[in-house]
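To: structure desk
From: M.T.
Subject: fold request, one chain
Message: Could you run this one when you get a chance? Sequence is below, nothing fancy, just the single chain.
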Amino acid sequence: MRRELINWYKTKYKTKEFISKFLIYLFLGIGVVVTAAPFIWEISCSFKLNSEIFSFPLTLFPKNPTFSNYIRLIQGEEIPFLREFMNSCFVSVSYTILTLLISSLVGYGFAKFEFPGKRPLFIVVLVSIMIPQQALLVPLFLLMNTFKWTNTYYAVIIPGAFSAFGAFFMRQVMFSVPNDLIDAARIDGASELSIFLQIALPLARGGFWVLGVVLFLNSWNLYLWPVIVLRTEEMFTLPVGLATLLGLYKVEYGMLMAGAFLATLPIIIFFISRRRQFVAGLASGAFKF
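Reply: Done. Structure tokens follow.
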């Protein structure tokens, strides 16, 4: 009787475990389908002409695949795609490097130094995160116009490089650096810059890569601010350039989908190449709040 009862509990436990795993995988599968469906449709439409995109019934796979959208896009018939692609690469890489450097220095200072007004100053940094970016567009544009930076990449890169979120994030990361190592380096005569570059940054590289990925993605997809300060087509970044394909009387949906797909490739490649550092930074458990 006892053995039968044990077997019954084991069977019941296995059944519950199977049902729970099935529901989890079902939920995750639905999430994957919902997330991937627009991306698959985008790739499919990039190989279609406008007539087939709006044909009824809708077809997931193109009946007559064509590379004309990609050819016209790369040849620059509608927009200077390759130039805008390189512009986005330059802006995103420059913005990411500069913001990482500034955020790391500010975060290290807040985490490892004591100075008068440290707490009120950090509260100001936190409060600035809550200010909507749209509220800063007019004063920021007037400031850029005063500096004569309109239609230059200075206006796109430099204002965003002073990131309150980046400073807060790196402050939390720098808490994971042991103070004993820093004190030992100071006793040995190391300069503060050497301590920062040779001790703090290597130990905080997990969070450093996480912030780098987030900054690169945000910069690559940035549209509102560049469309305000950039004036000429040769200076446009990729999101701004692709938006010009939405004409008043004619919309090149096939080219738009092809451009959107090509624009996502650097993001995918960058994330895949740094996925281990990204996951390690998230799972390090080194953040103190």
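Reply (cont.): Residues 285-289 have pLDDT under 50 and may be disordered. Let me know if you need anything else for the meeting.
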